[in-house]
Amino acid sequence: MNTLRQIIGNNIRNKRKILNIKQDELALLAEIDRSYMGRIERGEVNLTVDKLFQISLILKCEAAELLPNHEQLT
């Protein structure tokens, strides 16, 4: 079972790819280092609520869409 961080990271990556946004572009818009964005997407770091909300705005979605759904948790 994936951790919450991994699920959120995967959800961010999937949404980013759907929108054809490169990881370095998202990092630049979110004002974080590209390597840190990679660590977020791999679930290696804890993401603050502020940064999650900022990323959701860039990805044009609700922050809740990036959080795990029931199926992802079971």
UniProtKB/TrEMBL annotation:
Keyword Transcription belongs to the record: yes
Gene Ontology MF terms in the entry: DNA binding; DNA-binding transcription factor activity
Residue stretches making up the HTH cro/C1-type domain: 12-66
TM segment ranges: none
Matching SMART domains: HTH_XRE
Keyword Lyase found: no
GO cellular component: cytosol
Gene3D superfamilies registered for this protein in UniProt: lambda repressor-like DNA-binding domains
Record CDD domains: HTH_XRE (cd00093)
Keywords from the UniProt entry: DNA-binding, Transcription, Transcription regulation
Annotated PANTHER family: HTH-TYPE TRANSCRIPTIONAL REGULATOR, HTH-TYPE TRANSCRIPTIONAL REGULATOR SUTR
Name this polypeptide is given: HTH cro/C1-type domain-containing protein
Protein species of origin: Simonsiella muelleri ATCC 29453
